[in-house]
From TrEMBL:
<dbReference type="GO" id="GO:0004795">
    <property type="term" value="F:threonine synthase activity"/>
</dbReference>
<keyword id="KW-0791">Threonine biosynthesis</keyword>
<dbReference type="InterPro" id="IPR004450">
    <property type="entry name" value="Thr_synthase-like"/>
</dbReference>
<dbReference type="InterPro" id="IPR037158">
    <property type="entry name" value="Thr_synth_N_sf"/>
</dbReference>
<dbReference type="InterPro" id="IPR029144">
    <property type="entry name" value="Thr_synth_N"/>
</dbReference>
<dbReference type="Pfam" id="PF14821">
    <property type="entry name" value="Thr_synth_N"/>
</dbReference>
<dbReference type="InterPro" id="IPR001926">
    <property type="entry name" value="TrpB-like_PALP"/>
</dbReference>
<dbReference type="InterPro" id="IPR036052">
    <property type="entry name" value="TrpB-like_PALP_sf"/>
</dbReference>
<comment type="similarity">
    <text>Belongs to the threonine synthase family.</text>
</comment>
<dbReference type="Pfam" id="PF00291">
    <property type="entry name" value="PALP"/>
</dbReference>
<keyword id="KW-0456">Lyase</keyword>
<dbReference type="GO" id="GO:0030170">
    <property type="term" value="F:pyridoxal phosphate binding"/>
</dbReference>
<dbReference type="GO" id="GO:0009088">
    <property type="term" value="P:threonine biosynthetic process"/>
</dbReference>
<dbReference type="InterPro" id="IPR000634">
    <property type="entry name" value="Ser/Thr_deHydtase_PyrdxlP-BS"/>
</dbReference>
<keyword id="KW-0663">Pyridoxal phosphate</keyword>
<keyword id="KW-0028">Amino-acid biosynthesis</keyword>
<feature type="modified residue" description="N6-(pyridoxal phosphate)lysine">
    <location>
        <position position="113"/>
    </location>
</feature>
Length: 468
């Protein structure tokens, strides 16, 4: 399996060579030359596998330059009942109307990002050790990504994490989750400012090429290919859990922001998983919904990105979307390059001539949800099914119920647990969300965080001193 760029400027490369890469050198995203096709006999064989065994079978198709016994050990160490709360790893529960919820949020940070990030931590450590290299991850977070990265990388040999977060702007739970980590390789830096200020500092450091090279600075953002591959696994597992045989078809409904999660669903479908439709759910930040309804992609600036009660979907430029568009335009890198030149000129693009293909050939449909919809859905699911869902999952359930066809099996992806978003749960239900066991005293644990003004030089000095 070799990897290329959506913009055509990457010589075909092996998995381990693209693993630590952010963007491809030409600014595009990395993709395999072709998707492996899964035949019916293979699918039948996979139905009864454990999560870890299924993950091994799928990931080895994409990471074929890692010796099989090493990969099997890595994957088995990652997907355990101790880390993910149950031997099923991603159980399915049914609501009274038959809607299925695929539980992806039982990992250490209570959001689906753990599913991929936990594997990434083990993969990075393995590849760095093999090459005798080290890596210092620098990132900015407004919540879920940063904590998932820290819990995946804590205690890993050869890796440090420097995570910037906006001082005082995350929920008390999210702050406690990140700042209570005492591992020496995890560095929390709170910036007096907003999330954008944090991101600007990351960019400034990345643009100092001498600093970046000297201190081996890397990232773990959502365009990382290994994260997408790890997410492909739970579409297969979710399909097997929600069906009685491989003759059935299901649709998936995915609360979306950067399009990473549903992109993995697209790849699973291209591999031959019997997926009827991929339902993209957005909140008020609805660039993706607009695209799937009209064929027009009009990314917005940060000034037009709304702050909502499903904050992990407050994104107006979907970084993984380019991977799908590459497939939609017949894998033509020249076309993709031209389209993203338009995006960079803030013109967006119009692929309404491909809208038919988007729906029929690729199975995509979409819908949007609002704060009022979220509250109503959280109340409804609590009253009818005695289940408390988080705000992002509520967006998915709202859209799934609006678009579901008679007889269609829809699996909604649960992207976080409600404990992370207590304010909105209290607004909807007038009580606190349930807390999973082990998280009771989280906010009273001692915290480790360094606070700086929004100043890239101060952050660079801190990094240099920390690395000696
Ligand atoms: C990251 C995140 C999303 C959005 O996922 P994408 O892969 O960016 O589309 C949705 N919900 C939650 C809770 C998240 O953390």
């Amino acid at each position: 399996m070799r990897y290329i760029s959506t913009r055509g400027g990457l010589a075909p490369s092996a998995f381990c060579d693209i693993l630590l890469m952010g963007l491809a050198p030409d600014g595009g995203l990395v993709l395999p030359e072709h998707y492996p096709r899964i035949d019916r006999a293979t699918l039948d064989g996979w139905r009864s596998l454990s999560y870890a065994d299924l993950a091994f079978e799928i990931i080895r198709l994409f990471a074929d330059d890692i010796p099989q016994e090493d990969l099997r050990a890595l994957v088995s160490r990652t997907y355990t009942a101790e880390v993910f709360g149950s031997p099923e790893i991603t159980p399915v529960k049914r609501l009274h109307d038959g809607l299925a919820i695929l539980e992806l949020s039982n990992g250490p940070t209570l959001a689906f990002k753990d599913m991929a990030m936990q594997l990434l931590g083990n993969l990075f450590e393995y590849v760095l050790a093999k090459r005798g290299e080290t890596l210092n991850i620098l990132g900015a977070t407004s919540g879920d990504t940063g904590s998932a990265a820290e819990y995946a990388m804590r205690g890993k040999a050869g890796i440090n994490v420097f995570m910037l977060s906006p001082d005082g702007r995350m929920s008390a739970f999210q702050r406690a989750q990140m700042y209570s980590l005492q591992d020496a390789n995890i560095h929390n830096i709170a910036i007096r400012g907003m999330f954008d200020d944090c991101q600007d500092i990351v960019k400034a450091v990345q643009n100092d090429h001498a600093f970046k090279a000297r201190y081996r600075i890397g990232t773990v953002n959502s365009i990382n290919w290994a994260r997408v591959v790890a997410q492909v696994v739970y579409y297969f597992k979710g399909y097997f859990n929600a069906t009685g045989s491989n003759d059935e078809r299901v649709s998936f409904c995915v609360p979306s922001g950067n399009f990473g999660n549903v992109c993995a669903g697209h790849i699973a479908r291209q591999m031959g998983l019997p997926v009827e439709r991929l339902i993209v759910a957005t909140n008020e930040n609805d660039v993706l919904d607009e695209f799937f309804r009209t064929g027009r992609y009009r990314p917005r600036g940060t000034a037009h990105t709304y702050v909502t009660s499903s904050p992990s979907m407050d994104i107006s430029k979907a970084s993984n979307f380019e991977r799908f568009v590459f497939d939609l335009v017949g894998r033509d890198p020249d076309r993709v390059r031209a389209l993203w030149a338009q995006v960079e000129r803030a013109e967006g693009f119009d692929l309404s001539d491909r809208l038919e293909d988007t729906a029929t050939r690729f199975g995509f449909v979409s819908g949007r949800s609002t704060h009022a919809d979220r509250l109503a859905t959280i109340r409804q699911v609590d009253a009818e099914d005695a289940v408390v869902v988080d705000t992002h999952t509520a967006d998915g359930i709202k859209v799934a119920r609006a678009l579901r066809l008679p007889g269609e099996t829809v699996v909604c992806l649960e992207t976080a647990l409600p404990a992370k978003f207590a304010d909105t749960i209290r607004e909807a239900l007038d009580r606190d969300p349930p807390r999973p066991a082990g998280y009771e005293g989280l906010e009273s644990l001692p915290q480790r965080v360094t606070v700086f003004d929004a100043d890239a030089e101060a952050v660079k000095t801190y990094i240099a001193q920390a690395l000696g």
